[in-house]
Amino acid sequence: MKIGSESREMQSDFEEAGQSLLPLSAWLLGFPESSSTMFANRRELAETLLRRLLADGRGAPLQELQDRFHAARKVDAAEVLATLGCAARSVAQTIMAAWLLGRYLPFETEDCTGSVQAGVMGAEAYRQSLVWHLIGATPMGVPQGGPNSWALPPRNMV
């Protein structure tokens, strides 16, 4: 019984961390705080990102970034990033790249001497990345108008 309760507690902690990642992500990317629902609709990307950061041992710099965000959420993120240490700044850059491109691009290692391996976060993360929203397009391989849109007449392109 104890194992199950610890598992539920860990899942709850993970969900809480994932929820706090959404407003942090909006702030880092310069979106208004109200846009965190746009990020919430991309839950798989957020969960994959959080799992990768924690698996890479980046929990402490992520916590530092979260603490700075809560202390200075009304300040422009660029001003705060300039004052962060290398590890927290690297986590911030990784978060921004993941949301925009759907790719895990850690910029520097914990000691700021090199880089860790980049990689694709998955097909769903690619589809959920914000680049498509920002440029007003759909990802390659996804029908422009959604499933069965091929049967609809083309939109007027005036």
Could you describe the 3D structure shown?
The chain is mainly alpha-helical. 57% of the residues lie in helices and 3% in strands. A two-stranded antiparallel ribbon has the order 1-2. Helix 3 runs antiparallel to helix 6 and helix 4 (59-71) crosses helix 6. The chain is elongated and about 55 Å long. Mean pLDDT is 75; it is low at 1-7.
Our Rg estimate from Cα atoms comes to 18 Å
User: Strand order of the main beta sheet, please?
Assistant: 1-2
Number of strands: 2
The rounded distance between the terminal residues' Cα atoms is 64 Å
Mean residue pLDDT: 75
Number of helices: 8
Helix residue percentage: 55-70%
Describe the SSE topology.
Blueprint: H1 2-28, H2 36-40, H3 43-55, H4 59-71, H5 77-81, H6 86-101, E1 103-104, E2 119-120, H7 123-128, H8 131-135
Antiparallel strand pairs: 1-2
Compact overview of the structure:
It is built from eight helices and two strands. 57% of the residues lie in helices and 3% in strands. The protein starts with a helix and ends in a 23-residue tail after the last helix.
Give a quick set of tags describing it.
mainly alpha, elongated, single chain, two-stranded antiparallel sheet, 158 residues
